[in-house]
């Protein structure tokens, strides 16, 4: 059984949100000895270099720099090994992890909890997943689609920001001084539309009392996973023909499911005229011109992206497919004779939309594709 002694706090947030500034302030205020893991995708860890200049308080910190990869995937095993090594230092009272700006917090937390369950007598436990939110950027880019020239066309950026907001138990709203009180309330209201439970703490220049992070209830993966509007929609609206679920904020959601593929050109045309009443959409899909790959569709505000992911199991060689079925016989329970495991499952969340119109538009993009071998 694990001996829960050393809390681990994961700090997430997109590039420029203020994670390093937050950590600088924590190091200045914190009087317990803490360890810090800084993950940067580049070969030179700029964030760690900045933190090293914080001052004398860094003497109370053991810092580990992890570069050329991300702790949610390529550096996952190395990350857990460092966590365990640090926890063996009996003087360390907490471990802070500054994740890369492009990390997916759910993947980090999932790997962490899996390790915690599989490892006997580990002293570490996941205390909190904190998302640092640049409220000025949310106001400019999510609410009004004022993307910078550098980010133009990169709808996946705002979708990643939304993922980081959805999967956390504490949101630190940074750079509040850049907005008026009315603008800030507009941002907070919009954030609540996609993340209704996580605590919010406002700050300027990442100046937050460390006790706000350390003195809170322990992280609960299932509870946090259920926070997001997307997961609530999947939990509450199982089929596309059910009435849309409406919550206390007036936000409704529904799930569209269809085995047949989308026509790529038709779906892209639909995105050009995407309903403004939809706040968030997400799910897996496939196109008639690609029977091999799973596509991830994400939309937040006026930004949308489609990303090619893994392969459908149906596209595997027959020999490999037989091995999967032999090992996991339940796999074929939802197998379609024509399309195998290929299907579209998309969650739509919004306010004041006409579900029938959206569903009709989606079906106009669906093709009666011939059986592909």
List the helices and strands and how they pair.
Blueprint: E1 6-12, H1 19-29, E2 34-40, H2 46-51, E3 61-67, H3 76-87, E4 94-98, H4 105-118, E5 124-134, H5 135-143, H6 155-166, E6 170-174, H7 181-194, E7 199-202, H8 210-214, H9 221-225, H10 229-236, E8 245-246, E9 252-258, H11 264-272, E10 278-287, E11 290-300, E12 303-311, H12 318-327, E13 344-350, H13 355-364
Parallel strand pairs: 1-4, 1-5, 2-3, 2-4, 5-6, 6-7
Antiparallel strand pairs: 8-9, 9-13, 10-11, 10-13, 11-12
Number of strands: 13
H/E topology pattern: EHEHEHEHEHHEHEHHHEEHEEEHEH
Distance between the termini: 50 Å
- As laid out across the biggest beta sheet, the strand order is 3-2-4-1-5-6-7
Q: How big is the Rg?
A: 22 Å
Q: Give the assembly state of these chains.
A: single chain
The biggest sheet, with number of strands, parallel, antiparallel or mixed sense and barrel status, is:
7 strands, parallel
* Mean pLDDT across all amino acids: 76
Q: Which overall shape is indicated by the principal axes computed on the Cα atoms?
A: flat
Give the CATH level 1 class of the largest domain.
Alpha Beta
- List the total number of helices: 13
Report the β-strand fraction as a percent range: 15-25%
How many domains in all? 2
* CATH H level, superfamily name of the largest domain: P-loop containing nucleotide triphosphate hydrolases
CATH fold category name of the largest domain: Rossmann fold
